Amino acid sequence: MSLHTLDARRLLCPLPVIRTQNYIKNLAKGDSLAVICTDPGAEHDIPAWCRINGHRVIDISSTEEEITITIEVGTLV
Amino acid sequence: MNKQRKAVALISGGLDSLLAAKVIQDQGIHVEGINFFTGFCVEGHTHAIRKKDQKKVKRNNSLWVAEQLGIKLHILDISEEYKDVVINPRYGYGANLNPCLDCKIFMVNKARDWMKENGFDFIITGEVIGQRPKSQRKETMPIISRDSGIDDRLLRPLCAKLLPQTLPEHEGWVNREKLYEFSGRSRKPQMDLAAQFGFDEYAQPAGGCCFLTDEHYSSKLSDLWQFRGERTYELDDIMLLKIGRHLRPRPNFKLIIGREEGENKFMQGYRKMFTTLRVDGHAGPMVLLDGKADDSDLELAAQITARYSQGRSFDTVNVTITDTQGHCREMTVTPMPEQSILKEWYL
Ligand code: SF4
């Protein structure tokens, strides 16, 4: 169970979602991924993508400039 | 036991693709969605950039549709390969620079590859005959099936009864009797079906699913091609066409003028790609200069920049001009009077 970080800063939605999706493809169940974004849309889109694809958002934290969404990888297909 | 059949649904985020997927799902087929990122998608972008729009929480409609249906959604980034579709459409453009027919063929072809790689049986789309003048006509439906290479594995549940039988119907994986015969531009049948399924806050049908159907956007893209002397683009180019005011005061350069704080901030990220202009000591826009400019061009650009700043009524203002290497120079200029900004400069 490893912790990974994905830099999705300056990307506009849906690109942060796409990068998250593609990154998670190479992870294993139980791994976590922290995605750092600047597009506020990611705060809604990444959790929505996780809900429909069976992953769990375990934390969302934001500063003035950035949002970090931490995901626990669920079962992969 | 019969094999569980699987369909991949092209999900745009609109009502039609939602209904098409639902109809097939209700027939016991396992459905997963695919959504394509072309770079021109209406979803997200400008809303993310513009500060004032950020207060409204705007959902990504394709993700929302998938969630309503309880299906997985795979978003495929096709932006690189899609360039060829936009630049050289075999079947030409619609009313603007929208190559709808080629786009459909391309997307179905990509979905076909995905279908094969992932062991799915057929593809479904929300197309309705006659819904869109160029790409959704009875004559174009077989072209899409043929040119994409999908042939009879493409099922359009909303108008299937008006079209020849497809493989999933023929094989009895889906019941043709329970499919529909929608045609024409009316949205009423879709709305009735949505009500029947209990969907009530779906995305309202707009002119099209991408910026290429927008007249304004298309004219900015044509301008870009014309003045670059070649029909090419990068993702940054098409992103920038979505924001700011675009003015071309001389053939050799254009200005992109931020309209509000969010855009100004976003444009900061392009400082290494474009010469930028900003008025000193007054609130004002971030301005990007795209093209080649000599001193007289820079002076004109600075005057225009000043016009859009709070310093517009001053006799002179200082404008800082920064090149792509980060070298700054200052110019003192008279803000351009409103009537001197010609209408034809606006793209
Ligand atoms: S509107 Fe845009 S995305 Fe939709 S079919 Fe036409 S070109 Fe493709």
The main sheet of chain A comes to: 4 strands, mixed
Q: CATH homologous superfamily of chain A?
A: TusA-like domain
Number of helical segments with 4 or more residues of chain A? 2
Instruction: List segments of chain B where confidence is low: pLDDT < 50 over at least 5 consecutive residues.
Output: none
| Residue runs with pLDDT of under 50 for 5 or more positions of chain A | none
Spatial strand sequence of the major β-sheet of chain B: 6-7-9-8-10-11
Strand content of chain B: 15-25%
- Tally of distinct domains of chain B: 2
Proportion of residues in helical segments of chain B: 25-40%
Broad structural category of chain A: alpha+beta
- Please tell me the CATH architecture of chain A by its name: 2-Layer Sandwich
Distinct compounds present? iron/sulfur cluster
Counting DSSP E segments of at least 2 residues, the number of strands of chain B comes to: 11
State the separation between the terminal residues of chain B, measured CA to CA. Answer: 62 Å
| Computed CA radius of gyration of chain A, to the nearest angstrom | 11 Å
The CATH top-level class label of chain A: Alpha Beta
Structure characterization notes:
The complex is a heterodimer of chains A (77) and B (347). Chain A has 77 residues and is α+β, with helices and mostly antiparallel strands. Chain A is 29% helix and 32% strand. Chain A has two helices and four strands, in the order βαβαββ. Chain A has a four-stranded mixed β-sheet with strand order 1-2-4-3, with helices on one face. In chain A, a hairpin with a 4-residue loop joins β3 and β4. Chain B folds into two domains: 6-209, HUPs (Rossmann fold, 3-Layer(aba) Sandwich), CATH 3.40.50; 243-343, no CATH class. In chain B, α1 (15-25) packs parallel to α3 (61-69), α1 (15-25) crosses α8 and α5 (100-117) crosses α6. The longest helix of chain B is centred in the first third of the chain and has 18 residues, at 100-117. Classes of the chains: A alpha+beta (77), B alpha/beta (347). The site of iron/sulfur cluster has 11 residues of chain B, from α5.
